[in-house]
User: What shape does this take?
Amino acid sequence: MLTMSGFTAFNPTYKFITVLMPTDLSNQIILITGAGRGLGQHAAHHLAKCGAIVGAADIDPKTCQETVADIRREGGKAYAYCGDMSDRDTYMEIAARFAGVSGRIDCIINNAMLLRYEPIADIRTDVLDKMLAIGVNAVIWGAQALLRHYDPERGGNIINMASPVVHRGYPNTAVYSAVKGAVVALTKVMATELGPRRIRVNAVSPASVPTPGAIGMVSKEEYARRAATIPLRRIGREEDNSNAIAFLLSDEASFINGEVLNVDGGAAIS
Ligand SMILES: NC(=O)c1ccc[n+]([C@@H]2O[C@H](COP(=O)([O-])OP(=O)(O)OC[C@H]3O[C@@H](n4cnc5c(N)ncnc54)[C@H](O)[C@@H]3O)[C@@H](O)[C@H]2O)c1
Assistant: This one.
């Protein structure tokens, strides 16, 4: 489903009809990390359908290239970049290559994450370091990349991925929750620091979307429990998240900055 805006037109049979249009992002050049699968892959497709030129980056070359091939088959414009986006040099090199396509980058979506839930007693250095590196460090590399390649006259956007775990004490999510707490803090700091440079920084906080990464950690029974307790009585869908991202990037959101947009059916506040 596309994010819709629209207009009302006269039709001789039905008198007035409302014509729905996808959000227009046709002037946007957007780099999204973790675009090989899950929420990032869906967002890459959606933003391309909205007219954006999409740079799809992922540590997995196969899924990343497949995403781009599918987008191009659908008539969209996309470029694949394989690399570990937690590494600053890699992030900067990929951003420079993508900026070379159209001369600038308008938006960075820091979506990539290593999703792991485990008890505190089991946390080991290697997984902890990887989660912090892609979840926290890469958000900073993303901001640095945008600063290097955006057009100060046009302004820019950063979208970070938060989570309702920030508001709740979910057992066994210590590192993941710490990462997402840091993402919320970074979103607010960046919004105040970069706002005067015409860069808006917002976060989307989706809930309970059964992506390839999430279904490894959340059982069918747990999804059923969540569907029964989330105020809107269902779990999340990939399009819920993509629609929210497209809205935040649109002109309609031009005065929204430093916001963490819950896209969770009310999970965070219930
Ligand atoms: N699925 C949910 O319910 C949910 C809820 C809240 C927040 N989120 C957030 O949404 C984002 C996407 O989650 P998802 O559920 O689609 O996860 P996913 O595991 O399905 O997809 C994550 C993608 O990131 C890529 N990736 C991981 N490490 C990388 C690295 N170092 N460099 C480049 N790419 C890397 C993976 O290869 C994968 O393609 C994450 O930030 C996650 O925390 C998801």
